[in-house]
Amino acid sequence: MSSLVLSAPGKVLLAGGYLVLDPAYSGVVVSTSSRFYTVITPGINNRIVVRSPQFINATWSYSWSISSPSSVVVSQVESPEASKNKFVHLALQKTLSLALEARGPAELERALGAGLDITIVGDNDFYSQQDQLKSRNLPVSLASLAEIPPFSPTGVELADVAKTGLGSSAALITSLVTALLVQAGLIAPDQLASASARRLAHNVAQFVHCLAQGKVGSGFDVSAAAFGSQFYTRFSPAVLQPLMDDSSGSQSLLSVLAPENQAWDLTVTPFTLPPRTRLLLADIHAGSNTPLLVSKVLKWRAENSAVAHSVWTALDQCNTSLGQTLARLTELYDRDEYAYVETVRWAAGLQPRQWLANPNMPQAQSTCLEVFYEAHLLTEQIRSKMREMGKLSGVEIEPEKQTQLLDASVSMAGVIGGGVPGAGGFDAVWLLVCEPPEDTPGLPPLPRIERLWQGFAGVAPLLAQESKAQGVTLERLDDVPGLAAVVNAEARV
Ligand SMILES: Nc1ncnc2c1ncn2[C@@H]1O[C@H](COP(=O)(O)OP(=O)(O)OP(=O)(O)O)[C@@H](O)[C@H]1O
Ligand SMILES: C[C@@](O)(CCOP(=O)(O)O)CC(=O)O
């Protein structure tokens, strides 16, 4: 059976939380190796059946009707036990409407055939696996997480799952919308990497995500899902306003969502973490209510504009410098790989405050070390400013428990820095850790940090690293471990 598979990564906003809502400021976003996958296979009975096999009561069945020449209506097929999924329903409705507008009814009928079967799954990291580890009697470690089968069932309904904050809805929508755009012939599979295909996928996903959330956020999560790790400056919400206000669905989607539309004024500057460093996330088995945190912080900002302006300005300087410093490390690697790798070996065995202590360090290495140390200082300054923002606005941006976890973690040998990502609160926290070559003497930082975290109740690492692939990607079913098994198990039900 032919299958079309699209994946999109999750995200970690290392720096720029709250600020990135304002187009005057940027964020540093890392896309994660943890991804959402959408698999489309031919269906039957003129139905689009969408299944999320990791959840209980998560199959949604839709019919469609095309009234010539310009309207398609996607309706959920009612059944007493059917739950609703606004995100999935809107992705279908809006992407098929766009396909009808762009390619006409005959092409849309062809794309839908006798129906579509769609399976959606997310890597285990999007959901806390701590209960799984407990029930399997496994110690809390990266090795144990790797033993949990891919796309493991959560045992609960979608509304009740403990999320880790990696942006499940943005990754889900981006993979689903892009898969539908490919299925409908708006994106040729071999063109997906092109700038215009990616922009189309981004624009449609951004619109659907905003509509499903009922508001236009900064959109950094959808941008990371579409384009990969980046420095992100938001688009003006005005570009989407006509579509957000169009309750009758009569507005042209194509004129707003087309990649050529210059009103999409976001800035995406591709970025990667420095070589021989690793992103490491700590799930704290909780998850944040981002909209609530955002509304409180923005209310405080509006009521205290002078103080807020000085906090925002100071934070922005640190955030921008952190982005530049990380990019500079990659440049230093490109310029002198040997000196860079020797620096990582040295830094991996010492706490940051000891890094600059050797007066006999060769010049090229001490230059590298100074930049690593600068990155460390900046992450600490950002944490301190974020705590100040939280204190002033009465919001737990870096709650006391995370402060303890991060303080202990960032004083470990080989840890460059860390922080609370995005809106902060109880989402998984991040660290950037040195990864020295294997022949480096001594225990590397990663297992030492795992051991440290085992002393913190309710804390577990996640497998996620930085995504090697840039943004939304066409996959082969058999190349993704465990994916064919979940899709085929579903098909047998
Ligand atoms: N596996 C899935 N299958 C189908 N729909 C999903 C899935 N995961 C998420 N969703 C959709 O996304 C919605 C959750 O979106 P919400 O904005 O609350 O999460 P989020 O902020 O992206 O979460 P997080 O950043 O913590 O991962 C769900 O109600 C559902 O509609
Ligand atoms: C607070 C905010 O800037 C970041 C939220 O990030 P996260 O979903 O908590 O990772 C909100 C936004 O950018 O839409």
Automatic annotation (TrEMBL):
Q: Which pathway is it part of?
A: Isoprenoid biosynthesis; isopentenyl diphosphate biosynthesis via mevalonate pathway; isopentenyl diphosphate from (R)-mevalonate: step 2/3
Q: Which UniProt keywords apply?
A: ATP-binding, Kinase, Lipid biosynthesis, Lipid metabolism, Nucleotide-binding, Steroid biosynthesis, Steroid metabolism, Transferase
Query: Which catalytic reaction applies to this protein?
Result: (R)-5-phosphomevalonate + ATP = (R)-5-diphosphomevalonate + ADP
Domain of life from the UniProt record: Eukaryota
Instruction: Kindly list the biological process annotations in GO that this record carries.
Output: ergosterol biosynthetic process; farnesyl diphosphate biosynthetic process, mevalonate pathway; isopentenyl diphosphate biosynthetic process, mevalonate pathway
EC annotation from Swiss-Prot or TrEMBL = 2.7.4.2
Q: What molecular function terms (GO) are annotated for this protein?
A: ATP binding; phosphomevalonate kinase activity
Q: Name one GO cellular component term.
A: peroxisome
Q: Which family does it belong to?
A: Belongs to the GHMP kinase family. Mevalonate kinase subfamily.
Q: What is this protein called?
A: Phosphomevalonate kinase
What species is given as this protein's source?
A: Russula ochroleuca
